[in-house]
Amino acid sequence: MKKRNLYLNNTPVDEARERYLRAMEPYLRVEYETVPVTESLHRVTKQAVYAKYCSPMFNAAAMDGIAVVAAHTLGAGEQTPVDLRPGEDFIVVDTGDPVRAPYDAVIMAEDILEREDGTVRIVAPAAPWQHVRPIGEDIVAGEMLLPGRHKIRPIDIGVLLSGGILELEVVKRPRVAIFPTGTEIIEPTEDPKPGDIIESNSRMFQGMVTESGGVPTRFPVIPDDYELLKEKVAKAAGEFDMVIVNAGSSAGTEDYTVHVLRELGEVFIHGVAVKPGKPVILARIGRVPVIGLPGYPVSAYIGFENFVAPLLHTLAGEVSQTGLRADAVVTRRMVSSLKHREYVRVKVGQVDGKLVASPLARGAGAAMSLVRADGFCVIEQNSEGVEAGETVPVELYRTMEEIQNTVVVIGSHDLILDVLADLMPSRYPGVYLSSTHVGSMGGLMALGRGEAHVAPTHLLDEETGEYNVSTIRRLFREPVALVKGVDRIQGILVKKGNPLGIRGIEDLKRCRYVNRQRGAGTRVLLDYKLKQAGISPEEIDGYDREAATHMAVAALVGSDGADAGMGIESAARAMDLDFLPVGPEEYDFAIPARFLDLPHVQKFLGSLRSEQFQTRVEALGGYRCRNTGKIVMVE
Amino acid sequence: MKKRNLYLNNTPVDEARERYLRAMEPYLRVEYETVPVTESLHRVTKQAVYAKYCSPMFNAAAMDGIAVVAAHTLGAGEQTPVDLRPGEDFIVVDTGDPVRAPYDAVIMAEDILEREDGTVRIVAPAAPWQHVRPIGEDIVAGEMLLPGRHKIRPIDIGVLLSGGILELEVVKRPRVAIFPTGTEIIEPTEDPKPGDIIESNSRMFQGMVTESGGVPTRFPVIPDDYELLKEKVAKAAGEFDMVIVNAGSSAGTEDYTVHVLRELGEVFIHGVAVKPGKPVILARIGRVPVIGLPGYPVSAYIGFENFVAPLLHTLAGEVSQTGLRADAVVTRRMVSSLKHREYVRVKVGQVDGKLVASPLARGAGAAMSLVRADGFCVIEQNSEGVEAGETVPVELYRTMEEIQNTVVVIGSHDLILDVLADLMPSRYPGVYLSSTHVGSMGGLMALGRGEAHVAPTHLLDEETGEYNVSTIRRLFREPVALVKGVDRIQGILVKKGNPLGIRGIEDLKRCRYVNRQRGAGTRVLLDYKLKQAGISPEEIDGYDREAATHMAVAALVGSDGADAGMGIESAARAMDLDFLPVGPEEYDFAIPARFLDLPHVQKFLGSLRSEQFQTRVEALGGYRCRNTGKIVMVE
User: Fold this and answer.
1) Structural domains in chain B?
2) Which of A289, B171, B199, B327 is least crowded, fewest Cβ atoms below 10 Å from its Cβ?
């Protein structure tokens, strides 16, 4: 068996970062270059910049009118008008024109009477220096225009040029080499074979390096070859300001990176107490920091934020910006281990005036959880987790304004939520939909706790045969609007061609099934159908195997992971599976009546009722928009 | 006399913007282009993007270890170990490796015992699908990856590539033509002659267009020539998505722009009720919006934000982000007119847990007030102003974190404040100094109201001859630390060579003087010296003419605007003036004792006491650092 590299440390995050920054401090060198001011946007000044010229450069008219000698206007009044001769007693000036001796005041055009002979009559005296902008009013030569380590904004460029500055010294952008590694890794342009993994982290790092003020250079994928990796990394350490090696940092059998770095330089940290993101390598080759980041996208992202970004900010002369922080109420229990600090991605919304945070998928591989997240909730290393209803600090990716204009949807999953999420911001710019998938019952519970605006639900009352109404009546004391959504067909998803010849519920006993999570309407429907057929859950192989969405079930049935699952027709179509209809059901939206008048909830309803929505939904297949958008009040 | 274009309207800002946006709506067209995903950072998606592949693309090991058939491990226990044969009962897998039939579970490397014969012993059974990431766990083929009108972040690029997307349609960046105009306007690279104005607005606009998602093209300055302007603007309207004409929008004699635009197209608005920034032209040539902005930098900036940015955001497919808003206590009365909405630039700080906003210079020409500002305070059109102590909403340019780490300095002005403002963030990254200049007495009053951390002061007690201590004792009930600053020489500033032969206070009667504002220590000193010499203020020509800083006084004396003023030696040196010493004085910092332990106030003291500070200050000339940083408690 191949040698494994099991002996990672478990250094706490902050300690690891501080130890690394301290160890690198003697080696890090901020470098500078001179650039034209006109090309300096977003660069960082080396040192304070002082004005060469005054602005205005001369005493200047602050109004359109005439420049006069104030002393010559003394005594002017309604009864004692004074007439001024052009070229002698006055000259015409526009705003910004110089006012030179002997002139020392400006009279506004509105306050003069032009006469036919070219003279001008005034009926009030001018005070000395009235309507004159004195030289240097805005900028005085020698004055400091910008401090050192200042990031240039558009207005700074204007002021620098007005102050006579054409070039300035700025911090050189650090150049960062990025090496994706791994034999199983392929370029996105290649056709994936079974077992291949598409390389995408390095492209994410490119963007993150750019946003942190650096210049990324991404190298082609290096296969698992010790000597090749060593050669490439050694060369890059001689040419770049920083090197990132992606993957090859865990304890897998082909993880050479840490050995390469030990041979070429010094490894300070290998393994950090953070989840996800443990296998991080913090090292140095010569003066150059070399960081090994884990391969899972979420781990890679968190490793970058924790270790690459602070170093890059130092090299780029920028102050590291921690994001906007706010307190939010957690909508679901989050358990964590004492062994590490955990970063939980959350959706954040504002309901009833309070911020609420719903945890998203926690796997390190769940890159989509980063895309969907509105922020991170940090569970510290010494905490066992957070209970629902507790308040936690959240680091936000989105502005408070966006969050306040977001309709929070928690409940059952359906593809039409994606359609709505796409439709809303294009119909109503600045308004968003955020959806978390916890099943119908979970959504109604969240609604009851005031943590969501909308709960999509499809719960069958076995006794009445009615959907949703009776459950809502049972759960809520306040009036709830049941907004009718779509009729959709539930059924059994099987592989294309139905190789096992599955015909109905009975046949689920002889295949590998994949179920939905507890509280999902689809699971309730299965339970109902099993009961009708007199089948016990134990008879179904895979009854306890849970997937969180219709599409996840479809993907498993499409692979060799499962033979059948229950779900909606659109998911079967999307994954090219066969579909055995079990029956139609009503997928609706529960909204507490007091939310109906909120502007963004109104826009949610507007999107739902739009023709565009119904056209797109019917194109997905398996839906009918009979009563879409109609409201049934449940009181 | 030349024809003037006096007839501007005075349309309220919001009405002007809405009318213009409505008028342009039929003409504005968002365009699209296809770009590689790897080059899509910060671009805006045209429509929703759906995954082509699942991720993972196969059932994959979630741990390093061995893949097994779960059914073959049943019954394994401490007493009943099961031995597995390589290649038959198990294969070795690393994280991410595919788990293919017949294998359906992974056992972690830590949980197996490797034996010499190559077999592996386990003492616990594996549950089916344990440590296996199911196909599509992260991304399911057909799933929506990103909605339409979404701005691409680094993580989005990663997910798009993982989902098999290589190219995507994005909103084309609108191309914006920028025309600086005016015969008196010169390029920054030219040597300014008297009356010339350096063109800088167009360079500021370039940055602002870039930040709003557009691509700027800046044309050379067009002199005041009706036909030339017409030709250039007409051509640009045929080639670009938007045209900005800078200056030429007020009622001055050479302001052709509005006539050109009326001839070429349609002018919707000329003149907006906003201060600064009234002379705005909102027009159209064909499908293309053409906007005339005023020449003063602050007016130009506000006009851009109010009228260009929203149009650009529409064309660029982005949601316009209004900045962070917060409530702040106003430190000084701000009067405004009912006729217009006024934008007042403010410094913002946090003192005693509350945000405080200090208004900056309000002239439209004061570009430096934009550089120094931390935000805008808006006084609505129907308001006469705001009293000190009232709470107003402020639109912030800076993050709350920066503001919380800012030492708020309000009081007397000295060049050493610039040195400190430059020094602090480079010694202590992330810590800033914000200073507002209201004179010594104004600063102490602000300190008393809890609106500043530090008040620089140089107030002479005429009776004791002592500086600062007695005034502070009189004003404060709480203990105040008087941190000694510098000894500096005050004197009379006169033109180089002293052409009027000024020798002392007595001679101020026969020259044009420029004074400092009420409450300034330098004015107190002048009053004291005048009293000693038996001279009444009325005898001094220019006693009522006020400048706000030493440097502003020096600039006026250096021009033909004034013959003499009082100020500090370093200002005379900076402007190459002659200096007649009047006497030394003590320029100190008053800090309420309860602020002394605040981390950023400690860093202020650290900067003040640093060798670097004292070296730089002594190089300015006219200063002595005798007791710099020592603390005298005034109780």
Assistant:
1) 11-29+173-316 (3.40.980.10), 32-55+138-171 (3.90.105.10), 60-133 (2.170.190.11), 334-404 (2.40.340.10), 443-634 (3.40.190.290)
2) B327
